[in-house]
Design goal:
Structural class: mainly alpha
CATH superfamily of the largest domain: Myosin VI head, motor domain, U50 subdomain
Number of domains: 2
Radius of gyration: 25 Å
Order of helices and strands: HHEEHHEEHEEH
Length: 201
């Protein structure tokens, strides 16, 4: 069985009608951008002299161009050149191999950040309506308390997630493990209740 041969999977017949349906346009755009980010990691380049870089035109490169809806020439230029506009003058500078690699990675980060911002915006739009109707909302609690911004970025999610993990570690050592130790040693103490933020599977 080939790795991507979905027809050999027992559920393929049941899933085929669902998978054959066209995606809604916003959802298709999100998937295309995420796919482009993943394929960008497979795009390879070669140094061509001291300050020039050549992009290897292969399947990964062509897929990225197709997913982003740009021509291969435009993608090549974006990855290997720096464009500066000085008043009405257009200045193009070739990038070295290292800078071209940085440009590729920066493009992947910008694409991923734009997808994250779009998803957060859509969630906020839905929650704003639901909040007016039900009074309910979703918030992220980190180690310093609730943080609510008008615009949340991917970095903020990473910060909140890291803080949640730190809070979980703090609770585990300060409350859970210490109280288990007291119990195992027969120490008389008053049990402390605490909210465990750990997700249980």
């Amino acid at each position: 069985m080939q790795p991507h041969d979905t027809t050999a999977h027992p559920s393929a017949a049941a899933l085929r009608p669902v998978l054959s349906q066209p995606l809604p346009r916003p959802q298709a755009k999100v998937f295309a951008k995420v796919s482009a980010v993943l394929w960008l990691g497979n795009v390879t380049m070669r140094p061509d002299g001291d300050d020039h870089t050549t992009v290897v035109v292969d399947d990964a490169f062509e897929r990225v161009a197709s997913l982003l809806g740009v021509t291969p020439a435009a993608l090549t230029f974006a990855l290997t050149h720096k464009l500066v506009m000085l008043q009405a003058e257009r200045i193009e500078t070739s990038l070295s191999y290292k800078k071209a690699i940085d440009a590729r990675d920066a493009l992947a980060k910008v694409l991923y950040a734009s997808v994250f911002s779009f998803i957060v915006q859509k969630i906020n739009e839905v929650l704003a309506t639901d909040k007016k109707l039900t009074g309910k909302f979703i918030a992220i609690l980190d180690i310093y308390g609730f943080e609510s911004f008008e615009r949340n970025h991917f970095e903020q999610l990473c910060i909140n997630y890291a803080n949640e993990r730190l809070q979980q570690q703090f609770n585990r050592h300060l409350f859970k493990l210490e109280q288990e130790l007291y119990e195992s040693e027969g120490i008389d103490w008053r049990h402390i209740e605490f909210v465990d933020n750990q997700v249980r599977g």
